[in-house]
Design a protein that fits this description.
Length: 319
């Protein structure tokens, strides 16, 4: 990215968040390229979205999340539809967007990555509830069992901060043992079907939880969403051993919906999910509400900082 004004938004509650002093020290490669850096630390949930929107209005070239996917998620709310690019210095419990974008995990190397990155437009998903409220997502959203786990762990939960990803895995396996499917109507671009649903994942990118590619055909700039549906009919029926076996394959990163049983796979620009009873919904690892929901795509509505080399997350048709 060409030199310009950059705002680093630091989440002090992130598991690996550097101090402001350490952050200034590792930002030397950016300063050496003429970047003008301002650092702000958040004090409460939701604040990062407002900070990002203000920065875009003030003409900042980029806003960089110093945290995990929760911080990235908040910044995306404020930057979508603007020309200000979103970057990340990974420092949280989960750093899935950093993995997708090719950002190194070590902060000093990540700043070097940002120094040579370019601004690229990507799609953003939008979850709209029946009351008209909406939330955007960059990675994916889901309905059902996993969203219930996210709701239980919570964005700032003690278990999440102490145990990290293990907290989700433990809670997820516990829910899987007790899970029962819910009759759910799912409509993708006008094609309607009913499912005895465990989980429905709507992906803008490939990785789920940083460990498996549930939506491995997804591209972040193709104007489409990829939908992976785990139902009783395909998800080894209602038998627990089959569900645990499929979960084990997913945890090893070996679940490919195009080649293995267990999921239905669709693609489209609009998805409607309406169960007979309300189910929890999560977006980018954040609990956001309950069904029914309509999920749409905003094509190339968010600029992000990516490696200038070809990225498998993109179609290659750069504007």
């Amino acid at each position: 990215m060409l030199p310009g004004r950059v705002l680093l938004v630091r989440n002090p509650r992130a598991r690996r968040a550097p101090s402001e002093g350490a952050l200034r020290q590792v930002s030397t490669p950016l300063l050496g390229r003429g970047w003008r850096i301002v650092i702000r630390s958040t004090t409460q949930a939701g604040e990062a979205a407002h900070i990002a929107a203000e920065a875009a209005g003030e003409g900042y070239n980029a806003v960089v999340a110093v945290g995990g996917d929760g911080t990235v998620h908040e910044l995306a709310q404020g930057l979508t539809g603007t020309s200000t690019a979103l970057g990340v210095l990974p420092a949280g419990t989960a750093n899935i967007w950093a993995t997708e974008a090719g950002v190194p995990g070590k902060t000093s190397r990540a700043t070097g990555f940002l120094a040579r990155a370019r601004s690229v437009p990507v799609d953003v998903g939008r979850v709209t509830f029946d009351d008209g409220t909406a939330r955007r997502f960059l990675l994916m959203c889901s309905v059902g069992l996993d969203a219930e786990v996210v709701r239980r762990i919570g964005g700032g939960g003690v278990r999440k901060r102490i145990f990290g990803r293990a907290a989700y895995i433990g809670a997820g396996l516990g829910r899987l043992v007790r899970a029962a499917p819910t009759l759910t109507g799912i409509e993708v671009d006008g094609a309607y079907a009913e499912h005895d649903l465990y989980v429905a994942v709507v992906g803008n990118t490939r990785l789920y939880g940083g460990i498996t590619e549930l939506t491995s055909a997804a591209l972040a700039d193709d104007g489409q969403l990829d939908v992976a549906t785990f139902s009783a009919r395909r998800f080894a029926g209602r038998r627990l051993p089959g569900r645990l076996a499929l979960a084990a394959r997913a945890l090893r990163g070996r679940l490919d919906e195009r080649q293995r049983g267990g999921v239905d796979y669709q693609r489209g620009a609009q998805v409607r999910i309406a169960p007979v009873t309300r189910l929890p919904v999560q977006a980018d690892g954040e609990y956001i509400g309950e069904t029914p929901v309509t999920i749409t795509v905003e094509p190339r509505a968010l600029h992000v900082l990516l490696d200038p080399d070809p990225n498998p997350l993109l179609t290659g048709e750069v504007e």
